[in-house]
Amino acid sequence: MSLQCFRMLAMIVLSLTAGRPTFAAETKASTFRIRQIILHSRHLGAHGMGYNGESLTELSRKLTPADIPAMILLLGDTELRVGAQFALASQCEAAISPVREAAMQDEQISALDADDIMSLIVDFSGCTPGTQQNASAARKDIDAYREEQQVRRKEQAKRQAAEDERIQKNALKILDPNRRKELTRSEREEVFKRSVKALGLENPQTAEQKEMVQRMYRTMVLDEPGTPPRP
């Protein structure tokens, strides 16, 4: 289940505890209304039906800031993704903060979607110059955040690769009776868990599978006599 689905579920639960049994139906109706408005704002262009400046103007008249949460949810709809971007951009200043927060704090939407929305606001004549400047500043914040996240993911991948290499070397030691005792119990347990996962035995079902996992544990972790399965 995606983060968006979890949030929608939480909203429904909260509405029920607050004594509003019609919340789910109201939300569905509101989303359907916004979806239809977005779809009907498309215009025929050089590449077929799509969204343009006229779409932004139409959406700004038919939608309100109160619709922004639903528009953000619709970014997850493959068919509506671009239309939802235009819909959010049509709300000018009201959309800047929610979109920035959704991208940078909650990571509810992708930084690329948020960047596209800010670009549309910057180019939309229906937004004031001040709002366009704010959107430009927000886009820089989002771009910086995206670059920071990319660096963090690369560093995490490097750490994970180093960790995998370390555990693999320890696995080779376990296979060597003369070097097995060089490992601490914690290191042997790491190799055991990785080996069990590699064999798809994290949740053994049959008696044979359970016996195999127990035998691996005794041999690899407790260092009892026997030959452990190769990780």
Question: Can you walk me through this structure?
Answer:
68% of the residues lie in helices and 3% in strands. The protein contains ten helices and two strands; from the N terminus they run ααββαααααααα. α6 (93-104) packs parallel to α8 (129-174).
Task: Briefly summarize what is shown.
With 231 residues, the chain is mainly alpha-helical. It has helices at 3-17, 23-39, 53-62, 68-74, 81-89, 93-104, 111-123, 129-174, 185-198, 207-220; strands at 43-45, 48-50.
Could you say how many structural domains there are in total? 2
Order of strands, main sheet, comes to 1-2
Write down the Rg. Answer: 27 Å
Specify the number of helices: 10
Number of E-type strands: 2
Strand content: under 5%
Structural class: mainly alpha
Average residue pLDDT: 83
Q: What spatial form do the alpha-carbon principal axes imply?
A: elongated
For the structure shown, list the relevant keywords:
single chain, 231 residues, mainly alpha, 2 domains, two-stranded antiparallel sheet, 2 strands, elongated, disordered C terminus
List the helices and strands and how they pair.
Layout: H1 3-17, H2 23-39, E1 43-45, E2 48-50, H3 53-62, H4 68-74, H5 81-89, H6 93-104, H7 111-123, H8 129-174, H9 185-198, H10 207-220
Antiparallel strand pairs: 1-2
Helix pairs in contact: 4-5, 5-7, 6-7, 6-8, 7-8, 8-9, 9-10
